[in-house]
Amino acid sequence: MFDHKKVITPLYFRNFYLFLDDKNTLPLFLTLQLHKNHYFSIYLRPFMQFRFKNLLYLFVVLVSLSSCGGFEKIRKSSDVNYKLTKANEYFDKQDYHHASELYKELMPIMKSTRNYEALFYKYAYCFYYMKDYLDGSYYFRNFVEYFPVSKDAEECEYMSALCLYKYAPKASLDQTNTIKAFEAMQSFAYKYPASKHIAEANGFIDLSRKKMEAKMAAAAKLYFNINQFKAATVAYRSVLRNYPESPNGDLYQYMIMRAMYKFAKASIPARQEERYTTILSAYKELKDTYPQSKYIADADKIYNEANNNIKKIRNEQPQ
């Protein structure tokens, strides 16, 4: 009598058994329960020279090949209700790949039937659970367009925006999809101000805004680091204009001063006085808008240097 270990699989087999020798070290038999009273066994003695991990790989391949046969039988069935039942079973078992395959085939067939709304709803969720967020957003949005008065329309509109948010990349990459997610979340919040998802939606709006701000600020910093000081000034002003309530507003204004100073210093003598003068205005804006900023002390130094340079230039001009 051998001991055995039982493993539950998420596919089509109910379970399988691995029978070990009396020392619980070597596998002897592998038994698959295909259906209620149907079993398939493999005698492993010829494979004993392989490592145990290789045997497990072999088993996974066998499971996959056998399970495909069951799924193909369902796909080829002409019984629509049977296919829908099996698709729902796959969905309930969290086998979203096979559920989505069946739902995809049923979508055009069941259009305009009483089951179409529920099918469409689950089909959209399949993509979300498979982390295919772009398609998930597309089908959630289409659900809302096709069933605008559905009890699930609000949820699906939120899920469409959430998928876009999850699809959006980190701040260092292109933020096109973050902008789309931001706009979708804003649209949802405006349309459903009393939704149970409103707190989460507002949170995602804030996070999206921070990502877009971080991207713009990083671009401005890059211009500064590569000595493109005029472009850096324009870029930092753009960040301030787009995100006036940012907690980093004083940093951006200070960096505008720094970029202006370096730009003026590198300019030809004929343009220096004019460009140093703009720094004085930027300094006043920093002090007036952010009087408690930690950058004031450093800004004072830039202001004094700019002011001294202006005086020096004027003193050197011929009378």
Report on this structure:
67% of the residues lie in helices and 8% in strands. It has 319 residues and is α+β, with helices and mostly antiparallel strands. The protein has four domains: 1-75; 77-130; 131-225, Tetratricopeptide repeat domain (Serine Threonine Protein Phosphatase 5, Tetratricopeptide repeat, Alpha Horseshoe); 227-316, Serine Threonine Protein Phosphatase 5, Tetratricopeptide repeat. A four-stranded antiparallel sheet has the order 1-2-3-4, covered by helices on one side. A hairpin with a 6-residue loop joins strand 2 and strand 3 (27-35).
The proportion of residues forming helix, as a percent range, comes to 55-70%
Q: What structural class results from the helix and strand content?
A: alpha+beta
First-residue to last-residue Cα separation: 113 Å
Runs in which pLDDT lies below 50 for 5 or more consecutive residues are 1-15
User: Any idea how many domains?
Assistant: 4
What string gives the helices and strands in order? EEEEHHHHHHHHHHHH
Strand order of the largest sheet: 1-2-3-4
Strand content: 5-15%
- Morphology: elongated
Question: In a few lines, what is going on in this structure?
Answer:
It is built from twelve helices and four strands; from the N terminus they run ββββαααααααααααα.
Blueprint of the fold:
Layout (H helix, E strand, L loop, with lengths): L3 E4 L7 E6 L6 E9 L2 E6 L8 H25 L3 H13 L3 H15 L5 H14 L3 H14 L6 H15 L8 H16 L6 H28 L3 H14 L6 H17 L3 H21 L6 H21 L3
Antiparallel strand pairs: 1-2, 2-3, 3-4
